[in-house]
Amino acid sequence: MLNVNIKIGVVPLHFRASELAFALAPLPKDELPPTSPLTEEDAQDLDALTLAKSYFDLKEYDRAAYFLKGCRSQKAYFLYMYSRYLSGEKKKDDETVDSLGPLEKGQVRNEALRELRVELSKKHTAGELDGFTLYLYGVVLRKLDLPKEAVDVFVEGIHALPLHWGAWLELSNLVTNIEMLKSLSLPDCWIKDFFMAHMYTELQMIKEALQKYQNLIEAGFSKSTYIISQIAVAYHNIRDIDQALALFNELREQDPYRIDNMDTFSNLLYVKSMKPELSYLAHNLVEIDKYRVETCCVIGNYYSLRSQHEKAALYFQRALKLNPRCLGAWTLMGHEYMEMKNTSAAIQAYRHAIEVNKRDYRAWYGLGQTYEILKMPFYCLYYYRKAHQLRPNDSRMLVALGESYEKLSQQAEAKKCYWRAYSVGDVEKMALLKLAKLHEQLNESDDAAQCYMLYIQDIFSCGEQLEHAEVSTALRYLGQYYFKNKLYDEASLCAQRCCDYNDAREEGKALLRQISQVRDQIETPSADLFAPLSNNNTPVRRVSPLNLISFTP
Amino acid sequence: MASVHESLYFNPMMTNGVVHANVFGIKDWVTPYKISVLALLYEMTASKITLPERRRLNKLILPLQQGPDLTLGQFLKTVEECCPQTAYAVKLRLHEMADGELKDMEYFFSTLPTPFTAFDTEAYKTSVVGLFMRHMLLAYNKLSFSQVYKLYKSLQHYYHSHYAKPMDGQVPALVADDSEMDLTSIEDTVGDRVDKEELDTPLHESELRSDNTPSRGPLSQKQAEYFLARQAYLLKNDENKALKPAALQEELNNMLKFNPDFAEAHYLNYLNSMRVQDIFLSAHSLLHYFDRLILSGNDGKSNGDEGYGRSLRYAALNLASLHCRFGHYQQADLALQEAIRIAQESNDHVCLQHCLSWLYTLEQMKGSDSTVLTEDSVKMAAHFCLPYLASLGIQSLVQQGATQGKTAHKLMDALKDTDILHWKHSLSELIEISLAQTTSIWRMYGKSTMSLQQAQLLLNMSSLEPVNFGVQQNNTEAFAVVLCHLAELHAEQGLYGAVSEIIQHLKEQFPPHTQHAKLWMLCDLKIQFERHMNEGKYHLAEPLVTAITALNQLEGLYRKAQVLKAVNRSTEAYHILQQLQARCEKTKCTEMVIRVMLSTAELHWESSGFSTALPVLLQALALARQHHLQSLASETILHLAFTQLMLGVPEQALNVLHEAVEPILAHRAVMDKGCAMLLAARCQMAVAGFKPNRQGQAADLRLAASALDTLNEAAAYFSQLNCKERLRDVHYLQAQLHRSLGQILESNKSAMLFRLLDQELQSPAPPVSMRL
């Protein structure tokens, strides 16, 4: 069956099948499945089919369709219809460029769709459609904005030809939630597992997706680059950066000329600020094919990391010219415009991203940031809330929400946000610090100390050194706090630790001196009990409103 | 895979990340309709037309040029009405092009008189026509090879669809005949043509009508703009004429699907969602609109960065108004502060002024005193020459002043001054508000005639809007308020038939889901409640209390106390009244405070605490006088007189009563008139030395006779309202009076009437002396 995919030459489809076939252990010769026997009609149409297939490969769709007109075999019929469909699409795209006036551009339609639908629905009711034509029928229906009918037809097509991954993919675009997914009746075939894993990734149910992929690997697809890349993407989605990076590196070794998913890889490298690796990847990809969306995105990321934002934006634009529905590029371009302080262009880019996919939380977040830059904290709340809705367990949105609330002097809400951000697992380790500072401002010293303590624990437990860590601030506050509460042992401990940091060394020493003074006084009761405390208020450091460095595309 | 199938939604006009909807800076594109207009212009310059016809055609040019694209049928029909000969010529010319070849169209464009050569014709380069022609020529010359071909194709389609449509309904033979005609003879006889035209027209009209139904595919830019403007206007002024919310939503979705950059559609979407109280969607659309607007604002050449910042400020302001509308005062406050901050940063005084007027509105809605803010706002608005905001502020000040008991003539003066301003700037909206406000103020002061007159004035005023899409009756808040007042005024006079008609009209004009529907709902409930109370049907009044409470909590509490009082659950009623008084005094709701005091005094009567009722009543009287609330004042006097009667000083009571009777008879409700008359009669009886159950001892026969007259009058009022309990009292007194005057026959008659009513009512009569 895999062979059919390859033979019929639905160009973008067959490589997936061959990829999987390659990933499996080679079969001994005599176990090879018999090639499907040619029917009488197939034999008759063989020459026309071959000719048309060549034209089709050369993208001369009308020509291919012309030579296939009289053919009666299923294969030829599919190629005939498919050529007509693609020809319509191609013409539509060409039309878009020179239309009559700005409003007409939206009206350009694939004129072939209606005819195709009529013909196909006739055949469909007669039950003459095979798996491929059913797939095509589904695509036509989807294009005509008939999603319900399209889903039915795709499911039917999948039942007729379960190994056609294209139909599964199209179906995945139409499934919007898990309930809908569960309600579909799908054939019980090994490819269903691939589909389910794909769907879980789409619906942000990463844990289930990883489980599925793991099962597939154990079932014998351990060498499949497709699965490795999907797992890596899944890890990327849950922000397990190291795992994802490791997987991508493995993928690069196995499949060095791969371009798919490399944009995701570059995002990861960008997050980690791994300049040399990103540079290597960019140059390598340019050598392979410089006119690919992924390549352009990688180059954009590369320039962005080098702070050459104009060039980065240029490359993202190029990516969009190659594929305007490339979601990631719109969002990334928005980020670049933000860097260039071109807020209106950024808003436009983000809005486009949302238009392509309403569930793109990064675009919503970006819009929020844009308005935050424009000093409209209340206005940006809406966007952050949207982003938070889409990713309820992402601490970055919560921290952003908290910051906005703080700016609006809604401390109660801000506290809730920060605490929740900490509870869902804070990636940037900022929430606790901010919470502590908020408590400090509100003179809730016990809560503040508690938060600083948790913060220090958090920082040290994660092991690695973070750039923006403010352990010293925390230690300084804790020292003062213990001192005020006359817990001198703890205070001196904190003060000593303070001395490890440059910015807090002096204060640490001063505190130590004070502590020893007070201790002396306690021992010698003649002295004054309360030495005046040095009134060094801890300066509240301003956190820049836009923390783009830590924000990852 | 997906990339192959996904439609290439790519905007070629994108440069530097910003889509310029308008690359060439030309709004006009050549469309088949425009070609028809060009043909018309060409014919007008070329051929000889009689003067009246020419005049009619000239009048037609501007609407044709600027209006939305019409179908060929519509176009030809309008031209034909002015000059059939030219219409025929135009049709001929179009026919030449459509049924000919591409070169015919090209030839047409080349023969057009270029405005640069024609000096003495109407097509001179700076004239309206000349400008249009130049636009069209320029647009045509810019078209690429394939675009020209496409234009020609669409022209053919445009022309043929005009003739193709009738085929559906008619015999195919005629179609064949039709095409033959077209092929064979261009110099067809005019008569035949006209015949065919006549056949076509009715069908075209039906087609037109079906055109008005939603979801008919993409609209052209002009058409879309026209559609949006019209719907927005209707939403503002007469919602019932606009499309239904669902239909409008569908139409907008359709429009946005074909042109996602059409920002105004998002705004209309926002308005539409507000109609159905959908906070989620309306916030979404509003923000989307401003996101889009910020882009187009950036486009403006005149004030590049300025325009962009400006829309940001107004975005925040609009968000504030949105939250305000949905009653999220805290959110609104935050958004408003944000707007104020950005406006301050960029020194935008006009925007700041708008913010300020919103600020006091918000304060007012929250129920706190905002007089100082409003005064500031008015001063600043006057300084920046913003008449709208200034007089809006004054109106709000007047409203506050009225509730705070400012001197009446000052308020009226202020309103009059603003009216002058309104008429000067023809701010029709404010004129309406002003009239509605005067109605309310007069009503509050208890001058029902004046109030009635003002209400009628507003209702009979014809619309002042420069463009009204055939809208006669606006449905703004002002109209709702005035109609409610009208209903209540009629109810007071017991004209319930008229009331139900008014309420019916309100229901139609302001469907329950709309913004101002609550006004009439409350008004309707109040009227029903009063009616049931008057008729003594307390069990019917009680369920209404819950409904009233839902709409207005204070009013609901008050009504609840009234019902409790009526069914003799005095303790509960007293508690509620105390609670209510405390709350009203906090919110400075003077009218309600006085009413609560009156009710409290009535409760005191029930426990025979007439002397305890006195201070309460005096306090109420002072308050009412202070706030110029004449109706409440006279009602209080009525209460006072009754208390005095009960305390045994009927002469004093009669004196006091005389003071109040006049305004009551002039302005008050029928019920009050009846009560006043009844009370007067009782006072007269008391003065006359009449004691119940003692026969023939009337000291002053003259007074007793006049008391009888007064009682008759009262009986007339009560029977008008079908208020049986009071009628029973009246008959009782009448019977006694008659008897004391020795008129046994009349006495028996009254006694019988009393007996009948008493049987009907079944409830034991409360002691007649214990209530007003």
UniProtKB/TrEMBL annotation, chain A:
GO biological process: anaphase-promoting complex-dependent catabolic process; cell division; positive regulation of mitotic metaphase/anaphase transition; protein ubiquitination
Annotated Pfam families: ANAPC8, TPR_11, TPR_8
Keyword annotations: Cell cycle, Cell division, Mitosis, Repeat, TPR repeat, Ubl conjugation pathway
The family this protein is said to belong to: Belongs to the APC8/CDC23 family.
Pathway assignment: Protein modification; protein ubiquitination
Species whose genome carries this gene: Oreochromis aureus
Annotated GO CC locations: anaphase-promoting complex
Domain Cdc23: 42-232
PANTHER family for this protein: CELL DIVISION CYCLE 16,23,27 (PTHR12558), CELL DIVISION CYCLE PROTEIN 23 HOMOLOG (PTHR12558:SF10)
InterPro entries: APC8, TPR-like_helical_dom_sf, TPR_rpt
Protein name: Cyclosome subunit 8
TPR repeats: 225-258, 293-326, 327-360
UniProtKB/TrEMBL annotation, chain B:
The keyword Nucleotide-binding belongs to this UniProt entry's keyword annotation: no
Domain Anaphase-promoting complex subunit 5 N-terminal, chain residue ranges per copy: 30-162
Domain (Anaphase-promoting complex subunit): residue spans on this chain: 266-365, 604-662
Record's compositionally biased regions (Polar residues): 211-220
Alphabetical list of InterPro entries matching this protein: Apc5, Apc5_dom, Apc5_N, TPR-like_helical_dom_sf
Location(s) in or outside the cell: Cytoplasm, Cytoskeleton, Spindle; Nucleus
Extent of Basic and acidic residues compositional bias: 190-210
Pfam families (UniProt xref): ANAPC5, Apc5_N
Region (Disordered): 187-220
GO cellular component terms attached to this protein's record: anaphase-promoting complex; spindle
Keywords: Cell cycle, Cell division, Cytoplasm, Cytoskeleton, Mitosis, Nucleus, Phosphoprotein, Repeat, TPR repeat, Ubl conjugation pathway
Biological process terms in GO annotation: anaphase-promoting complex-dependent catabolic process; cell division; positive regulation of mitotic metaphase/anaphase transition; protein K11-linked ubiquitination
Name the UniProt record assigns to this protein: Anaphase-promoting complex subunit 5
Species per Swiss-Prot/TrEMBL record: Oreochromis aureus
